[in-house]
Design brief:
The protein has about 120 residues and is of the alpha+beta class. It is built from one helix and three strands; from the N terminus they run H-E-E-E. Helices cover about 15% and strands about 25% of the residues. Belongs to the multicopper oxidase family.
Length: about 120
């Protein structure tokens, strides 16, 4: 009987630890630059994220906390739209100028500049 009680206590302790765990954080760093792309086989200048077009895929599940650090290496402000993504605790999902401010370009010589 004491073994069953100890096993029950251990299972309860594990379940409580799982239930009270904090939601995971996922960290990303994106460098936005210009580059040559070939959509539909036609060469043109486009915007790349970490040298990719289209940009990187984010794999996450409900309640993941995403921290995305965006470095704008373009020569003009850059605005990201998060359409279709539910963002709790803020109202920045629509990307409309005025509700979301564009990211200013990194100045040349700034240590954050990756160009």
């Amino acid at each position: 009987m004491p073994i069953n009680l100890a096993l029950c206590f251990a299972i309860c302790a594990v379940l409580i630890a799982i239930v009270s765990a904090e939601d995971p954080y996922r960290f990303f760093e994106w460098n936005v630059t210009y580059g040559v792309i070939y959509p539909l086989g036609v060469r043109q200048q486009g915007i790349l994220i970490n040298g990719q077009f289209p940009g990187p895929t984010i794999h996450s599940v409900t309640n993941d906390n995403l921290i995305i650090n965006v470095i704008n290496s373009l020569d003009e402000p850059f605005l990201i739209s998060w359409n279709g993504i539910q963002q709790r605790r803020n109202s920045f999902e629509d990307g409309v100028y005025g509700t979301t401010c564009p990211i200013p370009p990194v100045l040349k010589g700034d240590p954050r500049s990756r160009t």
